[in-house]
Design brief:
alpha/beta, globular
Length: about 270
């Protein structure tokens, strides 16, 4: 078994401060003996407007954010999975999830497929699709120290098709780094994560943003690691005090046991294969 760490932070519009939080989490994960650290969606920054977001995405600090995490991964010999912004075009950004290996190289780059558009009465109004370009592909699962990992981001969680597609390609761990709002988090966060773990018989690792990012936005927290039986084996809270990690052993023998003892034989003669 190999130890995985799930991190929790509160990103703001200060990329320098966010990098410091992530570096703290790298140190904590390394000290705990973790081989992989999972960081949240948009760990580089959370802006208060589209204009500010574009400005930050084009800044020198944003480029430094990724390169400094690459240095930290190499120095600590730990794999890092982290959500960042990228530039898609003159008018669009990318919501990306990169995998940095323990040599400091970026080996995977997934672009969020399902964008978060929500207008909750008495709650947040967020329209990610106004300035973010959706991804056009699901990355195949890839080998890591904790098994075959499949990448997804936040709102992808509400669409079981992506996790089922990853499972069909023998994913053993599925990630959902997120910045869930408080109302949707309270209603659906744990239920959806546990459902994705149960239906794919995979570990689900969900690093979350927590606390107030600015006067307009607050995230739910509750970073989790869930085993393939749907049990929460590591969890953090909602209130943000400082960057935190939770850890759990990833037991691939448990994945094999559950899949062997309860094979999910899909009736693709009756419905399409996902």
């Amino acid at each position: 078994m190999v130890l995985a760490a799930v991190g929790q932070l509160c990103a703001t519009a200060s990329i320098t401060s966010n990098l410091a939080q992530c570096q703290t989490l790298v140190r904590k994960a390394t000290a705990a003996g973790a081989k992989v650290l999972f960081l949240p969606e948009a760990a580089d920054y959370i802006a208060s407007s589209a204009e500010e977001s574009f400005s930050l995405a084009h800044s020198r600090e944003q480029g430094d954010f990724v390169s400094e995490l690459q240095k930290a991964a190499k120095l600590s010999q730990i794999h890092i999975n982290v959500g960042v912004h990228g530039i898609a075009s003159e008018h669009r950004l990318k919501n990306s999830l990169v995998w940095i290996d323990d040599k400091g190289a970026i080996t995977q780059d997934y672009q969020k497929v399902h964008l978060f558009d929500v207008d909750i009465k008495g709650g947040p109004v967020l329209k990610e699709s106004t300035n973010v370009q959706p991804g056009q592909s699901i990355l195949p699962p890839f080998e890591t120290p904790i098994g075959r990992v499949g990448l997804a981001i936040c709102f992808d969680l509400r669409f079981p098709e992506i996790s089922l597609a990853l499972r069909r390609q023998n994913a053993e761990v599925i990630t959902y780094p997120s910045a869930f709002t408080v109302p949707t988090g309270k209603a659906h966060w744990e239920s959806l994560l546990r459902a994705r773990a149960i239906e794919t018989q995979s570990y689900v690792i969900a690093a979350a943003q927590a606390g107030p990012h600015n006067e307009k936005r607050r995230s739910y927290g509750h970073s989790m690691i869930i085993n393939p039986w749907g049990e929460v084996v590591a969890q953090l809270g909602e209130e943000y005090q400082e960057p935190e990690i939770a850890t759990a052993e990833i037991d691939l023998d448990l994945v094999s046991k559950i899949r062997r003892e309860m094979p999910l034989l899909r009736r693709t003669d009756l419905y399409p294969e996902v």
